[in-house]
């Protein structure tokens, strides 16, 4: 039996790795999620017409809250934190709403932050009730949702591998070559090495890809000298938050969607790590999401949630320790205080991330397919549930404008393939298996 199979079938143990290995594996998590963490403040800051210095401050604020939230989610504090290897960051679910708010007269950044605070409070109030939905996620639904998560992330990896959306020569051979080199290194390490090297295979692949990309002139370090060496994020940097009804209602809807997505991702991570996610654990995880969002509004940043791409890294490396993500949270906090260091991480070319993303996001989809084997996937109605839910989940990915004529308030749902797939899978399971009677309920896999 090869090393990869051994890692996947061995019992999961909560353990602390040797210090060097722990640091390297933790830094892998930071590198993977960093692009997503800075993308939201970049988009919203540009929509609001902020200066480059103000956008840089937004990014540092996001890194700080993401680090704190990751620490809480990984280790737990009081009633918050699912105590699993989870990375947190600014959620894309709210981007479209916040871009609209940024351009509304009398709203701006302070209105966005006020809506974020109110939405966080709303999330804290509803989390104890939402956590009960765990019973609606038998293996049939969970496997479908996890597969949809992996597939919905593939366009991100492909965009990275082609050079990123900002390049004028998308798909140029140098970009494809760098992405292919990173992917090849990861695959070769997993095939021919074991232990420490497998655990840090993504980091090694990205490091070599960074060197290769630098030799091809893809690494841009211009402006690093202008960045301050040290900067502390201060609350309410842009002024006192404004609490306006329309933005608050919009952001509260976003929190509901974040909860749906997070529930699916927590259950996915539970399957990968071999831990059962019960309603109590799910409540702790959702409370952390909401608490991070509440804090974010005061600290000049936005709604926060767990990052799906890091679930793929947990599966890819086989390192399932929450201590790893806790240290990654400390890395994020450090980067928020050291703008020059954050600048260096941000200089990683998209093609380097693309090579790693193809492997890791595919692992998420493969995990979903494996979980589906626990359900009666031979049943025609269950096959239809999987087919329709994954198909609907791909709609926002393939054609984001497909739902453009639906009401604006639905955008947080219709722009999220994960949310669409989750709602479809839960609804069809209720129709086919729960309302169909006890004999149909057994086919969901819930009693396996």
Automatic annotation (TrEMBL):
Instruction: List the membrane topology term(s).
Output: Multi-pass membrane protein
Q: Which InterPro entries match?
A: NCS2, UacT-like, Xan_ur_permease
**Keyword Cytoplasm among UniProt keywords:** no
Instruction: Report if keyword Translocase is assigned.
Output: no
Pfam families, per database record: Xan_ur_permease (PF00860)
Where it sits in the cell: the answer is: Cell membrane
Q: Where do the TM regions start and end?
A: 20-43, 55-72, 84-104, 110-130, 137-158, 170-189, 196-219, 239-260, 323-342, 348-372, 384-404, 416-435
Tell me one GO molecular function of this protein: xanthine transmembrane transporter activity
What GO terms fall under cellular component here?
A: plasma membrane
The record's keywords, sorted A to Z, are: Cell membrane, Membrane, Transmembrane, Transmembrane helix, Transport
Q: Which PANTHER family match?
A: PURINE PERMEASE C1399.01C-RELATED, URIC ACID TRANSPORTER UACT
- To which protein family does this belong? Belongs to the nucleobase:cation symporter-2 (NCS2) (TC 2.A.40) family.
Name the UniProt record assigns to this protein: Purine permease
Please name the source species: Stutzerimonas zhaodongensis
């Amino acid at each position: 039996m090869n090393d990869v199979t051994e890692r996947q079938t061995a019992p999961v143990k909560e353990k602390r790795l040797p210090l060097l290995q722990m640091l390297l594996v933790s830094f892998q998590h930071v590198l993977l999620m960093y692009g997503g963490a800075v993308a939201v403040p970049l988009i919203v800051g540009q929509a609001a017409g902020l200066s480059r210095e103000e956008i840089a401050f937004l990014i540092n604020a996001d890194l700080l809250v993401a680090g704190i939230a990751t620490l809480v989610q990984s280790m737990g504090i009081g009633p918050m934190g699912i105590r699993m290897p989870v990375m947190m960051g600014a959620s894309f679910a709210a981007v479209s709403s916040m871009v609209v708010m940024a351009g509304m007269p009398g709203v701006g950044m302070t209105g966005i932050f006020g809506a974020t605070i109110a939405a966080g409070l709303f999330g804290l109030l509803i989390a104890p009730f939402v956590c009960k939905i765990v019973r609606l996620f038998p293996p049939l639904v969970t496997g479908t949702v996890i597969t949809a998560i992996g597939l919905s992330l593939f366009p991100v990896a492909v965009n990275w591998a082609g050079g990123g959306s900002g390049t004028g020569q998308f798909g140029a051979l140098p970009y494809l070559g760098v992405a292919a080199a990173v992917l090849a290194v990861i695959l070769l390490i997993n095939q021919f090495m074991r232990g420490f090297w497998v655990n840090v295979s993504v980091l090694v692949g990205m490091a070599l890809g960074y060197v290769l990309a630098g030799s091809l002139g893809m690494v841009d370090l211009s402006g690093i000298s202008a960045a301050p060496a040290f900067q502390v994020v201060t609350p309410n940097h842009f002024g006192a938050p404004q609490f306006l009804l329309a933005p608050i209602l919009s952001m509260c809807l976003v929190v509901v969607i974040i909860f749906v997505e997070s529930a699916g991702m927590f259950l996915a991570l539970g399957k990968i790590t071999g831990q059962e996610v019960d309603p109590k654990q799910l409540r702790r995880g959702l409370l952390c999401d909401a608490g991070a969002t509440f804090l974010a509004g005061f600290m000049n940043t936005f709604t926060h949630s767990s990052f799906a791409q890091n679930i793929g890294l947990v599966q890819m490396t086989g390192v399932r320790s929450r201590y790893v993500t806790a240290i990654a949270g400390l890395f994020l906090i450090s980067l928020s205080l050291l703008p020059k260091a954050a600048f260096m991480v941000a200089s990683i070319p998209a093609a380097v991330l693309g090579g790693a993303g193809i492997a890791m996001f595919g692992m998420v989809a493969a995990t979903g397919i494996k979980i589906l084997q626990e359900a009666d996937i031979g049943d025609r109605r269950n096959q239809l549930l999987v087919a329709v839910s994954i198909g609907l989940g791909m709609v926002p990915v393939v054609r984001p404008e497909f739902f453009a004529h639906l009401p604006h308030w639905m955008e947080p749902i219709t722009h999220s393939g994960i949310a669409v797939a989750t709602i479809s899978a839960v609804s069809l399971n209720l129709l086919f298996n729960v309302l169909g009677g006890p004999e149909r309920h057994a086919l969901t896999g819930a009693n396996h």
